[in-house]
Amino acid sequence: MNDGSVYSHFQFTTHIGAMMDEDKFDGPTSNLFTHYNLFPRSIGQILHSFEVEELHLTFTQGRWQYDDWGYPLAPSAGTGVELWAWLNDDKQQTNANWKGLTNTLSGLFCASLNFIDDTISIEPKMSFRNEGLYNVHSAYDATNANSTSEKTPRKLRYGSLPHENVCTENLTPWIKLLPCKSKAGIASLLKSHKLFDSRFYSMAVHVRPVCEDELCRIKSLELIQTITAVFDVARRDGSYDWTLSGLFQRGITQACPLASTSDLIVHLPQTIEHPNQYELSPLPAQGVHTIGSGDDKQEIAVYDLKKVLGGEPFQLSLRWENSRPKSVRSISPGFTAHRYFTGFGQERGGLAIEIYNNNLEDTEAILLDTLPWYLKLFLHTFNVEVNGKPLENQKDIVKKMFYQQAVDRSRPAVLELALNLPAQSKIKFTVSFDKVFLKYTEHPPDANRGFDVGYAVVTVPLPRQQGQIGYGGLDHLRIYQERDASLVQGHGDGDADGKDKVRLYTETLLVSLPTPDFSMPYNVITLTCTVIALFFGSMFNLMMRNFVVEEPKKTTTTGKKKKTE
Amino acid sequence: MGLLSRLSKAQKRVIFGRFVLNWMPALSYVMVAVSFVWLLALPHQSYSKTTYVSENALLPGSANVQFNWDDNLAAEAYRDVVSKIAALPSFERAEALQLEFSKIGLRSATQNYTLNTSTDSRRGVNTYAVFYAPRSDGTEALVLSAPWTSRTLDTNTNAIAMLLTLGKVFKRGSHFSKDVIFVVSDGDAEGLQAWLRAYHGNEENTERRSEETLHVRSGAIQAALNLDFPGTGDYNALGVFFEGVNGQLPNLDMINTISQISEGIAPVELTLHDELVPYTENMTKNYINSLKKMLYMMKYQAAGTPTGNHGLYLKYKIDAITLHGIDRPDWPSQRYNLFRLGALVESAVRSLNNLLEHLHQSFFFYLLSGVKKYTSIGLYMPPVIILGVSFIFQALSLWGLSSDLPLELEAIDEGRKVAVALPYSRRSRNYKVPATVIGMSFVAGWASFLLLTTGFGFPGETPLLKLVASTGVCSMLIPPAVYTARIRSQILKSRKGKSKKTDSSSNETDLTPAADWILLKTFILALSALIVTTLSALNFSLAVTIGVVIVFPYMAFRPSSYSIISGVQALALMAISPPGLLTAGAWWYSKDISLVLNWVLEGYEVLGSWLLPMLCCIYWPLNLAAIVMVLLPVS
Questions:
Q1: Residue A494's pLDDT is what?
Q2: pTM for this structure?
Q3: DSSP B472-486
Q4: Is it the case that residue B512 has pLDDT exceeding 80?
Q5: How far is the alpha carbon of B362 from chain A, nearest alpha carbon, in Å?
Q6: Which of A552, B123, B547, B564 could share a disulfide with B532, CB 3.0–4.6 Å?
Q7: Which residues does chain A have within 8 Å of residue B129's beta carbon, measured at their own beta carbons?
Q8: Chain B closest-CA separation from residue A280 CA (Å)
Q9: pLDDT band at B10 (very low <50, low <70, confident <90, very high)
Q10: pLDDT digits over B187-222, tens only?
């Protein structure tokens, strides 16, 4: 990438249940999971028991710098953990299933996913459409009267934990899902020590139903596992050179024998003016491919690991003349979104979301923002500014608005907007809120840090192959694989006009609510305890002790006094 | 016990009333003395404790410092770059610096701002850059800032070079949990203020002020360090400045962290403000030293104008201090170069980076008599409260004087004479004069405030002229008030004389209302008590200053039958009126009055300091009322 970082993306795809007949297929029910083969059984069982049709789980640490890096290959880049799933609602047990799903995944991935409870789970109305088979079906629905979506009512659940840290403990169970673990293939590069020393790290598990042929007669369930890491190679000595073994401290010695394909693809830097600034060694046998055209041209080098490897560890390196590039084509993402809090103090605040459309045409987009219930939004303060000027008629920009009022301690506020972004504009939404004074038990540990508020998600359609480093959607890699070209058609999150829906994630934010002095309760407890002890002691003494007037004549012993009592 | 219990309730009241009348004035003077002695005892070593780092997460100086000799060389190279850039006009300067930041690989931008005050118009350009901590969520940030001009009015070359170098150093590591924002602000304080306003989404675009929206942002700012290393040379010591707008103070742990680091990992001589004290054997035990340091601090705090750009952060609940390089070439001590300072600042940032929560553990209210000596709020509040209570006691005794105590009304009960207290006062109080005087003087105070802060656009309009005008407005109030009151009392006297003649049976001469000045003085004292005690919680030093200035004049002065004495008292009160204090201040610092006035006005208009509104709308009215009071007729 332009700032000298190296972006690495691992993607593993596993299919299950090929050769399914369309009429027999009624969601991922029993008959699908009869034979696991390479598909991890742990995932399969979860899908089966909680009637999950589509599952997307992403762990991310760090922020994706859209301005510097363009769009990520991985579809999700929001900091923390993001989980969304389409659940079968046949038996109207979605809520129970969702709860079970979060708890089980929490155990499987050693993460605090069980904290995704009702207070942060939402059901987006426009964002996070399903990416799998059913899109194809709905396309068929237009022509065929029989609608599968009616047959199997589905519900979407979405939840995110912005402050979840991702570490080795999450990576290990993730690797376990791979057929070859980290023993062979590109997975052998996954060394946590180096992966977590990067600028951005994201790993994901996506499960979705797919078609194996064009008419969708054969269906299967696809498990895609991705790991994305951005290494800052120039950090130590300012040199932009990198080697595979230097990045990962490991080499690839053999391809995973169970894999049907095992490719390593290098996106070559897009230099301008000075053609031969760098040297890639070894060059791939087939030479360098070029994909895209015009400004979006991108050169790639593809290595088929099954052929390249011959016992020796695979060495790959890229060296620059003078160890720094002279000129590289700059990345200018068409859309960027930022979000920040306005105001100060602990009583009230405001939220501002800025969306930039640098493209030359108007674009539809969907904005989804979830705010926890302890921020009381005032919808009447919702304002839209275009290029710094307040907009009088909000309908020009906000085509549709879905707003879910928060309910204290049970559900978050959801603001979902269908937008029309004018060409080359900056749209700014502002809304103000009051901060709630929480019960003291509701504060998290380290209460004075504040509360993390998760990202907003902007879904924008982007034309395919915009020549950026990549753009979301799980199908991006297929453009390199011609043999799968037929499957790309009508697949995934794309529109009919060859556009991919890309999700932009804004920053997560920190909000500080009025925080009590937590040493106070302990002061009070100690004080009250002392007072009670003194009070109780003396009262007990007064009530239980028998005061006897001792006559001066009777100088009796204590033993006799006891008798009188 | 026995005696008291047998006395009737009424008798007790009589005794109490007598006690109040006889002893309260004396008691209040004793309390003033106690409060003064207590205040003077505050800097004493037995009163102040040694500071300690309260927040465990800070771990000052425990991280290995990355700032090495190469970085020192880089800093020296940057120093040349910065001195070259510094000569450029604002905009080009900011652009050039932005380029330097982006060369390091930090995301940087500039911000334009304009601020029109009633006296002048200021515009400038800030430069800022953000170091995004790798793998962090970016919800928290620290700020390192440096103004272009140092407090010594030199170019802040070393500090800006330091920011650039630290940007480079931070970029090397992957251990930061918080982003670091570098801000180089233009102008005096308005530059950083414009940046902070925009960062918190409060930017305005009006005639009075306009601030450009920020294009690069980070998370919630947890703490800030403001660097002030003037020139390009080495320094004898490092001064810590911490007093903010309106006397707000940062968390004491900020200072503790720096002092701990300066004793350990980056040994540097640290001092409060820019006062160097010659080294002596038992310097920490030296009372005069401590007193001096504490007085400096109280002076800065009372003024309500920050001693550096750090003071602007405090409003946003960001703890901040300024580190100022003190350069005294003739001072006999070791000198420190950028290498040492770089290590110190880096270590401090690393410490703050360790924070798990916002700084909340240590003290927010303290008085410092040395870098490592503090007096906490529990110890310094009593004297000022005692001072406030002494006002109240004085007021109460005057209030009692205006009622019909002593109430020795006797009744015969079982053949004994028993004192009976009435549940009401038979002597009416006349509020007309005191209420009008107080009301009018507050109106005059407000008027003078408006006069001072409004720009009328007349040719030759200066703040000084406006001050003269507002003094005129205020002083115009005095003669009419005094003469009306005098005439009124004459009329009352003559009327009373008449009524005496007609109705000789009533001999309750002492039931005529008390003299006007008594009630007026009661009000003045009660209001003074209110102001001093309320202010003590907001800005302790200002409360103490005001309390000390007004306590004797307001308590002791009363109208005299000798007009000379009254006149002298009035003059003394005028001396402690805001214009009088202004003149005194200008004389003390041997500066022009208009300069001092401009400074006060700027404090209000640029920084939002409450000193001017406080002086005009609260302090001055009471002072006016007091002047009227001493000129009123005695009876």
A1: 40
A2: 0.87
A3: HHHHHHHHHHHHHHH
A4: no
A5: 12
A6: B547
A7: none
A8: 25
A9: low
A10: 888 899 999 999 998 888 888 888 998 988 898 999
In this structure, how many other beta carbons lie within 10 angstroms of the beta carbon of residue A337? Answer: 23
Report which residue type is found at B322: T
Q: Which stretch of DSSP H or E encloses residue A355?
A: strand A348-357
Whether B172 and chain A come into contact, CB under 8 Å, resolves to: yes
B132-165 confidence digits (pLDDT tens): 988 888 899 999 999 999 988 899 999 999 999 9
- Kindly state whether B608 is in contact with chain A, defined as any CB-CB distance less than 8 angstroms: no
User: In angstroms, what separates the C-alpha of A88 from chain B's closest C-alpha?
Assistant: 34
* β-pair partners for A6: A231
**H-only helix segments in A360-489:** 485-488
> How many Å lie between the alpha carbon of A218 and the closest alpha carbon of chain B?
42
Q: How many contacts, defined by CB atoms under 8 Å, are there between A and B?
A: 99
pLDDT for the residue numbered A93:
81
Nearest CA in chain A to B359: A448
**B107 and chain A in contact, CB less than 8 A:** yes
Least reliable range by pLDDT among A94-98, A449-453, B6-10, B579-583:
B6-10
pLDDT of residue B34: 95
Question: Which of B66, B102, B135, B314 is the best mutation test for A, with the most CBs of A within 10 A?
Answer: B135
Of A76, A48, A73, residue with least CA distance to A63: A76
Strand order in the sheet with A278-281: A242-243, A317-320, A278-281
| Calpha distance A113→A105 (Å, rounded) | 7
On chain B, the residues whose CB falls within 8 A of the CB of A510 are 139-140, 219-220
> What is the per-residue pLDDT across B75-114, written as a single tens digit (0 to 9) for each?
999 999 999 999 999 999 999 999 999 888 888 999 999 9
* Residue A478 DSSP one-character state: G
Picking from B200, B528, B187, B569, the residue whose alpha carbon sits closest to that of residue B389 is B528
Q: Encode pLDDT of B278-289 as tens digits.
A: 766 666 668 888
Compare all CA atoms of chain A with the CA of B317 and give the residue at the minimum distance: A345
- Domain segments of chain B: what residues? 2-43+381-499+511-631, 56-371
Please name which of A126, A97, A57 lies closest in space to residue A404, comparing C-alpha atoms: A126
Q: Specify the pLDDT at position A224.
A: 83
Q: Under a CB-based contact definition with an 8 Å cutoff, are residues B486 and B632 in contact?
A: yes
CATH number 1.10.10.10 is the correct assignment for the domain at B56-371: no
Cα three-residue angle B80-B82-B88, rounded to 5 degrees: 120
How much is the pLDDT for A248? 84
Q: What is the ipTM of this complex?
A: 0.83
Which of the residues in chain A have pLDDT under 50? 18-31, 135-150, 465-497, 559-565
- Among all residues of chain B, which has the CA nearest to that of A167? B135
The shortest CB-CB distance from B137 to any of A79, A196, A517 is to: A79
Q: Do B134 and A199 touch (CB under 8 A)?
A: yes
Q: Which helix (H) or strand (E) holds B268?
A: none
* Residues B463/B597, Cβ–Cβ less than 8 Å: yes
Please give the pLDDT value at position B174.
81
**Residue in B137, B213, B316 nearest the CB of A80:** B137
Give the pLDDT of residue B568: 92
3-state secondary structure of A346: coil
Q: What is the mean pLDDT of residues B466-492?
A: 84
Smallest Cα distance from B165 to chain A, Å: 15
Sort strands A348-357 and A298-304 into parallel, antiparallel or unpaired.
unpaired
Pick A261 or B251 by higher pLDDT.
Answer: B251
Contacts (Cβ under 8 Å, ≥6 apart) of B427? B402, B403, B404, B510, B511, B512, B513, B514
Q: Using the 8-state DSSP alphabet, how is residue A475 labeled?
A: T
- Rounded CA-CA distance A465/A442 in Å is 47
pLDDT in tens, B355-368: 988 888 888 999 99
B537 Cβ partners below 8 Å, 6+ apart?
Answer: none
The closest CB to that of A446, out of B201, B220, B356, belongs to: B356
